[in-house]
Amino acid sequence: MNSIFELSRKLGIKISNISLFELALTHPSYNADANTKHRDYERLEFMGDAVLGFVSADVIYKLHPDMNEGNMTKLRSILVKSDTLADFAREIDLPKYIKVGHSINPDKVASSNKILEDIFEALVGALYLDQGIIAAANFVRTFIFAKAKSLSLDDLTDAKTKLQEYVQSETREPVKYVLVEEMGPAHDRTFKMNVVFNGIVLGTGIGKSKKIAEEAAAQDALSKRCF
Fold first, then answer.
1. Category of 48 on φ-ψ map: left (φ > 0), alpha (ψ -120 to 50) or beta
2. Can you give 142-170 as a three-state secondary structure string?
3. pLDDT digit string (tens) for 151-168?
């Protein structure tokens, strides 16, 4: 694991309480191996999630003065969803600084959107507690603003909605999502879903929740346009 101070220099952060950032970068598996409790990122993740939600709302409100509430809500959900936050984490090479136990392969950390989402939120939470809301908001805004500007109104419609609209332009029958397989241990499930219409599999998706897998299946179907 690389130095936290190296990360702070990269991000231009002057750390006052290093223990907060050590917690933010500690995966629960590390403490499971050490037989300790409550010494990981989960509480800081809670704080960071609140800051991200507030800053995202602030950016959207000011960036899109004519956007209605419904689209503002959709845009915020995109800005703070797992895939987006994981991408932010990768932008700053966050996987290199995460402390994990022997029970988890470090390569899995780098490939897991859920872990990287949690760690990024925890980092934001640590920054808020260490330096206050202005520093935390400024840090988050550098990521959120660029992402928000890159999205169009068409991006605000999720794949499941788009697929249903395409199908229902021809028929009133809905598409169905069918669970194909559950993989992995109970605490780290991965789901495989098919989206089906009239008995035909239109697409297949995999994700860490059924909802994510359904969205991936719908996106797969849209990319094939096989209906």
1. alpha
2. HHHHHHHHHCCHHHHCCHHHHHHHHHHCC
3. 877 777 778 888 888 887
Global pTM? 0.71
- The answer to whether the CB of 130 falls within 8 A of the CB of 63 is no
CA-nearest of 126, 40, 121 to 82 is 121
Written as one letter, the residue type at 97 is: Y
Sign of torsion over alpha carbons 53, 140, 138, 130:
positive
**Which residues are part of the catalytic machinery?**
49, 121
Q: Tens digits of per-residue pLDDT, 58-105?
A: 999 999 999 999 889 989 988 998 889 999 999 999 999 988 877 777
Sign of CA dihedral 68, 72, 73, 78: positive
Mean pLDDT (whole number) for 28-46: 73
Residue whose entry in the numeric block shows the structure tokens 């959207």: 60
Quote the crossing angle between the two packed helices 133-150 and 113-131, to the nearest 10°: 140
What span, in angstroms and rounded, lies between the C-alpha atoms of 77 and 81? 6
